[in-house]
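F.,

This is the one I mentioned.
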């Protein structure tokens, strides 16, 4: 059963370059001063970003969220046998969202969460985005994580996930309480890249192609990670974000207590009590060119 849609959101069907339809929600400001696309995390449905989108609208930014193919409102009747590559979410789905929100009269911005920071550098239309702010983006390698988290992640990749996918044909992420179920192609690619210290930049099968895409990015970027984010601590962020070597990149370490928060972790950036973080993002988007320090 699909969840009810927010009252202030308009459903939008996006058609990707390869002809796939994905489902998005558009939140419109009355007199917008800019547009935002939210590039969500792996296995996180777009409704999780509703509070941020509504807050952005209240500050004058029309906002689009989306469910990548295979999850949330874009999930097929069955994931068994559903074929896709993980990077389709970037090359196809997120690219379609950028095209849908691009407007010559107003600037377009993007907010990323975890995978969203990976996807941005792969966009074929990245030049349409004026500024990019991402939370919780890291390299995914267990070696960057606290020691207490490392054994859990290795158990997941080498025991639990293989058994689950062999049984169902997809990763039953929801059974672990970790988000939406994931198509097999997402599981396959994600597991492989998380075995490398610098994620897909270290994968010899695609590293050169990925680097060429990332080298095209000249967009100003802020990458903010909480020091209590066990999946993407600042060291993991730095390992991955070094791939944006031609962009003006600012890295921000978030200390929860200094922000009046008990914790942030990997998901707290978009919970309702994180509004001070959102205000920083929107203020950076609104700052004049040349004055965009985070």
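My design for it:
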């Amino acid at each position: 059963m699909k969840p009810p849609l927010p009252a202030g959101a308009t459903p939008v069907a996006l058609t990707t370059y390869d002809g796939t339809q994905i489902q998005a929600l558009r939140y419109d400001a009355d007199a917008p001063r800019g547009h935002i696309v939210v590039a969500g995390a792996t296995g996180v449905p777009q409704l999780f970003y509703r509070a941020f989108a509504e807050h952005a609208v209240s500050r004058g930014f029309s906002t689009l969220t989306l469910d990548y193919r295979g999850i949330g409102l874009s999930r097929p009747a069955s994931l068994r046998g559903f074929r896709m590559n993980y990077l389709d979410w970037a090359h196809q789905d997120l690219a379609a969202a950028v095209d849908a929100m691009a407007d010559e009269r107003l600037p377009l911005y993007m907010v990323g969460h975890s995978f969203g920071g990976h996807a941005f550098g792969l966009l074929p239309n990245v030049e349409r985005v004026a500024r990019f702010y991402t939370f919780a983006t890291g390299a995914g390698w267990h070696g960057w994580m606290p020691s207490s988290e490392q054994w859990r992640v290795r158990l997941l990749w080498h025991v639990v996930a293989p058994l689950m996918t062999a049984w169902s044909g997809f990763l039953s992420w929801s059974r672990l309480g970790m988000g939406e179920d994931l198509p097999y192609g997402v599981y396959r690619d994600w597991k492989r890249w998380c075995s490398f210290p610098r994620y897909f930049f270290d994968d010899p099968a695609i590293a050169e192609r990925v680097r060429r895409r990332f080298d095209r990015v000249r967009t100003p970027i802020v990458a903010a990670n909480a020091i209590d984010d066990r999946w993407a601590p600042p060291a993991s962020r730095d390992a991955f974000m070094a791939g944006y070597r031609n962009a003006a990149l600012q890295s921000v370490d978030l200390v929860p207590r200094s922000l009046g928060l008990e914790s942030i972790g990997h998901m707290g950036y978009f919970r309702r009590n994180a509004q001070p973080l959102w205000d920083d993002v929107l203020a950076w988007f609104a700052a004049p060119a040349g004055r965009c320090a985070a």
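The mean pLDDT is 95.

Talk soon.
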